[in-house]
């Protein structure tokens, strides 16, 4: 990944229509849409944080636009401005997860599941 800066804004309006299954009402919540538009990160623990001693976890619901065969969602993360990388897996593919990363800053994510790949940035405080 050669991206710099944190280019994926956190939207607070309704989720994309294809990502609203299981939600009631207008489904407004913090979320980040992948650069290709193939996946959305619905952020239940907004803002994401490196340490949460007394608060909600870094819960993210990953919702893929198209159904995919079973298989893990692999998240390759690179901290902007450094050589630091981390890998996380969501067993069974896009779905509910707790994604903790070790340092504050902008993380560039490459998300891979089945035969799909998308990218986005997430900021951790």
Description:
The strands form 2 sheets. The protein has a 4-stranded antiparallel beta sheet with strand order 1-2-3-6, with no helix packed on it. A 4-stranded antiparallel beta sheet has the order 5-4-7-8, with no helix packed on it. The protein has strands spanning 31-33, 39-43, 59-64, 73-79, 85-90, 96-98, 105-113, 116-124. Strand 7 (105-113) and strand 8 (116-124) form a beta hairpin. The chain has one domain (17-124): Immunoglobulins (Immunoglobulin-like), CATH 2.60.40.10. It is mainly β. Helices cover 0% and strands 38% of the residues. It is globular. The model has no long low-confidence stretch (mean pLDDT 91). The protein starts with 30 loop residues before the first strand and ends with a strand. It has no helices and 8 strands.
Tell me briefly what this model is.
This protein has a single domain (17-124), classed as Sandwich (Immunoglobulin-like), CATH 2.60.40.10. It has strands at residues 31-33, 39-43, 59-64, 73-79, 85-90, 96-98, 105-113, 116-124. The model has no long low-confidence stretch (mean pLDDT 91).
Helix residue percentage? under 10%
What is the string of SSEs from the N terminus onward?
EEEEEEEE
Major β-sheet, in short? 4 strands, antiparallel
CATH superfamily: Immunoglobulins
- Which band does the percent of strand residues land in? 35-45%
Task: Count all strands and give the number.
Answer: 8
Overall radius of gyration: 14 Å
- Provide the CATH top-level class: Mainly Beta
| Mean pLDDT reading | 91
Give the low-pLDDT segments: none
Question: What's the architecture, going by CATH?
Answer: Sandwich
Shape type: globular
Span between termini: 21 Å
Structural class: mainly beta
- The CATH topology is given as Immunoglobulin-like
* Count of structural domains: 1
Instruction: Report the total helices.
Output: 0
